[in-house]
Design a protein that fits this description.
By secondary structure, the protein is mostly helical. 61% of the residues lie in helices and 0% in strands. It contains 4 helices and no strands. The protein is elongated, with a radius of gyration of 18 Å. The chain starts with 17 loop residues before the first helix and ends in a 21-residue tail after the last helix. The N terminus is likely disordered.
Length: 139
């Protein structure tokens, strides 16, 4: 394994092309949102104790956030939120020309992340199986 050039050390995102950074940002945002929504759905299904449900949701979200920041942080900066990207842009850590693309990637990832856990009920069976049945319509 070779060491990063001196100019790139300590500067996340500097060694990756813009498309890779945007894909990482969309993927990270989608996975984070899917974790929040999915753990909320499961918490509601598994217990009626609000405190326990919130604890389960918080632990799952926190754990996923640590994993995503560790893996995707060096690639995209792991903003996963337009407000965070705006602050990075104001600090000049993110070029202003990249801000609209980051926000679009985060929005797309958020929409995909919201749809993915709601495509399956808490029972684990898909709501709509792949079939030619007309009664099985897309949501």
């Amino acid at each position: 394994m070779t060491a990063a050039p001196l100019a790139q050390r300590g500067k996340p995102m500097s060694g990756f092309d813009p498309l890779r950074r945007l894909v990482a940002e969309a993927l990270g945002t989608g996975l984070l949102v899917a974790t929040v929504v999915g753990s909320g759905i499961m918490a509601e299904t598994l217990t009626h104790d609000t405190a326990l449900a919130l604890l389960g949701n918080t632990l799952a979200t926190g754990a996923m956030l640590v994993v995503l920041i560790t893996i995707l942080g060096p690639i995209s900066g792991a903003h996963f939120n337009p407000a965070v990207s705006l602050v990075f842009c104001l600090n000049r850590s993110l070029p202003a020309r990249d801000l609209p693309a980051y926000i679009a990637a985060q929005f797309a990832g958020g929409v995909a992340g919201t749809r993915s856990p709601t495509a399956f009920p808490a029972s684990g069976r898909p709501i709509c199986r792949a079939s030619s049945s007309p009664s099985c319509s897309a949501r």
